[in-house]
Every structure is written in structure tokens, then in C-alpha cells.
Amino acid sequence: MGLGTLPAGVLVIRHAPTAWSRSGQHTSTTDLDIDEGGRQLAGCLRDALDGVDPPRLVLCSPRLRARATAHILGFDDRLEITDDLVEWDYGSYEGRTTDDIRKERPGWSLWEDGGPGGEKIDQVAIRVDRVAARLRQETGRVAVVAHGHVLRVLGARWAELDPHTGKHLALDACSLSVLGYEREIPVLHLWNHVVN
Length: 196
Hints:
Helices cover 34% and strands 18% of the residues. The protein has helices at 19-23, 36-49, 64-72, 98-104, 110-113, 121-137, 148-158, and strands at 10-14, 57-60, 79-81, 142-146, 175-182, 185-194. Helix 6 packs across helix 7. The mean pLDDT is 95.
């Protein structure tokens, strides 16, 4: 089943699942590939996008899981890799789940605390603001393929909100969102749509 006529704007795609995304392990610098189920989900999304104006440019994280998703979606010939789209650096919390972290640090929140030796939210927002500025300069359909937390910050910053607002924007693996405008106001036209 296709997506019909999507609103004009930026297609935002979170990479397909990996073993760690399924287990809830924070994954930034660990360069995992998507799993077999993730390949199938990406194939479903590719089929659903059939008939939608294809993006002429795709900004993509350099991580394998993002590039593999973009490949399945058929974006190889228009891919531009940018380090500004790498996932939030979790520091020493890389590979750990929130439940595990909270056993030693009750009440921990990535959004408020970051990870030891990793990035704070303001550092992520600086990278994301560069991506948003670039997207605002582009014309025609463009896309972004990256990771859950960095894309949640992008959604918030696109809508001119505080980056912490991203904590309210759940984003599933292999989901599709659309950033655009209502008149001159930046809006989220679609958020966290998953094709099965």
C-alpha cells in the first residue's frame, strides 16, 4: 500500500532496526548493520514510497545502519554523507539500556543529563541547526536518513522549538516523517509513520 500524496517537504527517515535498537541499547558510535527484519521493514517503506516524488538529494549519517537503509530505499545515487547527522554521542553509556543506567544513576535522562564523556543536548542542537539551515535552502523534495535521538532534535528545531522538546517526539525505527511549512511557518506535517 502506497502513501499516496505526501505533503511537500523534507522526508525524514529513521534507520531500520538493528539488534541494539530492538534491545533498547543506546547506539551512537558502534557501527551496527540493520538486521534481517530491518531489511524487510525498509523494503516495505521503499514500496510504500513508490509513486511519491523521489528526493533529488538525501542527507545521510555516515553510520552503516543509516547508509544500509538509504541503499534499500534506492537513494544511493543522490546520497550526501554528513557527520552532522550522526547519532547523539552517549559517551560511556554506549551500548547500555536506560534501565541498566538507572540502576546506578536513578532518574537519569539523556535529554537532561547526556552521557559521561558524550554530548550534551546543546552540542547536538548545534549540529542539527546546521542540517536544518541547509534543508531550508534546498528546493524540491529532499530527504534525511539518520538516527532516533538526533532526528527528534531535528524535528524540534525545525519547528523552532527548544531542542528538549524532542523528548516528546517518539520516533520508531524505519519510520517516515515529513517536515514542511504551513504558509511560512515551519511545521511537522507527518511524524513517526511506520509502514508494515
